[in-house]
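Below is a typical protein record.
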Amino acid sequence: MTSADLTAGIDPAREKVHLSPPAGEPGFGENHAFWIHDEAQGIQIISHLNTAEDIGDFGQRLAKLSVSFPDGRLYQLREYGAGCSEDVAGSGNLRYRCLEPFRRWSCHFAGAMDDVTVVHNYRTGNVLDLPRVPVRFDVDTTMVAPAWLQGSMVEGGLGVATAYIGGERYEQLFRASGTLVVGGREYAINGFGNRTHRYGARDLSASAK
């Protein structure tokens, strides 16, 4: 697998994080996402990092993160923050680092998340003042299949969906290993998942439909 071409013809430079929007491309944005699943334990870590052009600060990223367990526990977070470089997409607490284009990425988070477990909130009767739980994870991902550029396998490409997708978007399957700590309890993560990377101008106006 180490000698296989996992780029699917995509320029490895595309893995670089955009630190500023390209000139002459209004509405340009970028997002990365990792879906990590440990099948043996039923643990899922789902996270997204989106550029914050909506608040007028492209240098920041909007982090959206959830950690779920098969017993119904669910933790979520939504926050803005900075911390990007060419090889790191970050929002302060959540960071994705490119270790080798199209081959290896690492995912790191250290912060506090909202406990939105339904059973817990039903019993306490308070859904507005959610308890905060310390969470940390360090997960390494190793790609196991070539990247898939959306529209590349469809005759004529994405068509009208191009405006909604917002430029180019590719996905890639990976194996994942690392640790997750929730409320002081540590879990070894060994599983698989899927990542996405999108960059370009997105047009959600009626004229684009």
Notes: The longest strand covers residues 185-201. The mean pLDDT is 87. The chain is about 5% helix and 50% strand. The helical segments are 118-124, 161-165.
